[in-house]
Amino acid sequence: MSSGVQVKVIENIPAKLDADELVKGLRIRRNVDYIRNKLGSLIETI
What is the pLDDT of residues 18-39, one digit of tens each? Predict the structure, then answer.
């Protein structure tokens, strides 16, 4: 039983890291879009 649990934990660690990377990527992409929109609106007002 315990060995099965250990395998599950080991398998879940990379998946968790991947999820964290995905979240980071999404956050960065959202920031880029936000900055791009701000710049776009600035250019429009000029």
Answer: 888 888 988 999 999 999 999 8
Angstrom distance (rounded) from CA 37 to CA 39? 5
Q: What's the domain range around 34?
A: 1-46
Please give the model's pTM, rounded to 2 decimal places. Answer: 0.46
Q: Does 7 have pLDDT greater than 80?
A: no
Using DSSP's 3-state secondary structure scheme, residue 20 falls into helix
Domain count, the chain: 1
